[in-house]
Amino acid sequence: MNILILGSGGREHAFAWKLKQSPKCGQLYIGPGNAGTAMIGKNVPLDPNSFPEIGDFVVSNNIDLVVVGPEVPLALGIRDYFKQRDDLRQIPLVGPDQKGAMLESSKDFAKQFMVKYGIPTAAYATFDQSQLDQGLDYLKQQTTPIVLKADGLAAGKGVVICESLEEAERVLKEMLQESKFGKASAKVVVEEFLTGIEISVFILTDGTNYKILPSAKDYKRIGEHDTGPNTGGMGAVSPVSFANKEFMNIVEDTIIKPTIEGLKSEQIDYKGFIFLGLINVNGQPIVIEYNARMGDPETQVVFPRISSDLVDLLFGCTQGTLDQVELTIDAKCACTVVMVSDGYPEDYQKGFGISGLDKATENLVFHAGTSSQDGSILTNGGRVLAITASGNDLSAALNSAYSTVGQIDWEGVYYRKDIGQDLLTMTNKTLENSAEK
Ligand code: AMP
Ligand code: GLY
Predict the structure, then answer these.
(1) Is the CB of 289 under 6 A from ligand 2?
(2) d(CA 402, CA 396)
(3) 291 alpha carbon to ligand 2 midpoint, in Å?
(4) Domains plus CATH for the chain?
(5) CA distances (Å), 189 to each of 18, 109, 121, 184, 233, in order?
(6) Which ligand 2 atom minimizes the distance to the CA of 233?
(7) Closest C-alpha to ligand 2, atom 4
(8) Which of 14, 285, 289, 296 has a CA positioned 20 to 30 A from the CA of residue 272?
(9) What is the pLDDT of residues 43-88, one digit of tens each?
(10) Across the strands, what pairs with 334?
(11) What is the pTM of this model?
(12) How many Å lie between the centroid of ligand 1 and the Cα of residue 159?
């Protein structure tokens, strides 16, 4: 089976790594990919948002399966585009249609969906540009902190947690009046603040059947002990110790099943991943966000724990036969540490030579933002590498990952040294507690 993966990050490198292990994987293309994916398959200069070019490539290269990594092509309707073209209609594609992708691309749509289908989520109200005064009145009735969310896609930056009413008023005005996040903040969701530990739960669905993949916890802030600005993710671990069987049963009954039923009732063509961003409030899982794709860097710990053939799972997802495919999860713990450029998530420089990659052979080195030049690997993004290790427990996995991280270097490299530490101190019985044995 010839496969095309769209995207260029660590997530797409992890997809390529896992798909290539399948005896069913024929030619593997990554558009546009990075220096890491080029070691596994063939990088092709495709823009994931340029559908006509992608379509032509798929036809002329006999692609049998298209896997969409990032959210933007989904939000722009890549599945709908494939359905409209006679020569692409039959090509299996992993990713929901445009309406399904709205679970991620419109926070207001996601909130309405959750309320309609009785899925637990924080109390909220939505305001558009003509409703600033009502929005300001609503803020006065809330207790702080108050969460403000730009409705649209804002590259992970559209959520502001306001500690005071004054800050919330200022940010609401900036978002609605001054288009702080461009069109994405033409509408703003004002949400109740929830206290608890976050967990990411991943589902693969064909629209009717679903598989619950390993869950993960990611570390979003740039600084140790969760300080400083949000990033795309500085590390992740899987499994998550508090996600025991009892918790996961509640997630399945109160969130996953009603979500799948809701998608069916709305006649959404959802064949792909659902990423549930949950918060555990005293044992009750509550949805903070939906994403219509896998997480990055969560994929870099989720896929190494899946023993089953990913080609079978993804193909089954596109054919509506996921119930006939087996999912086996490895009991080992996995962690990933993301190595970033100095300055990230603000301005940073690119083009530094990365040393030590030849020595780092014990663990998985997923490339996120790299390029190659004359045989050298150079930094080419804010997030540069994600180093994944496995172990019998979380601390073994962490020790192993950090030993590899220590072998790799470039000018201005930065990484968090405390990935997974909060879970280690909460309990060191990760495996005993996990539902994913
Ligand atoms: P999102 O982009 O929706 O994932 O939000 C980014 C981050 O903001 C989340 O990972 C949480 O840490 C935080 N957050 C979002 N909504 C809430 C909420 N209602 N209560 C507390 N924290 C939240
Ligand atoms: N790691 C969070 C995300 O992929 O959105």
Answers:
(1) no
(2) 10
(3) 8
(4) 3-85 (3.40.50.20), 123-192 (3.30.1490.20), 197-424 (3.30.470.20)
(5) 37, 10, 13, 11, 23
(6) 1
(7) 295
(8) 285
(9) 999 999 999 999 999 999 999 999 999 999 999 999 999 999 999 9
(10) 238, 390
(11) 0.94
(12) 7
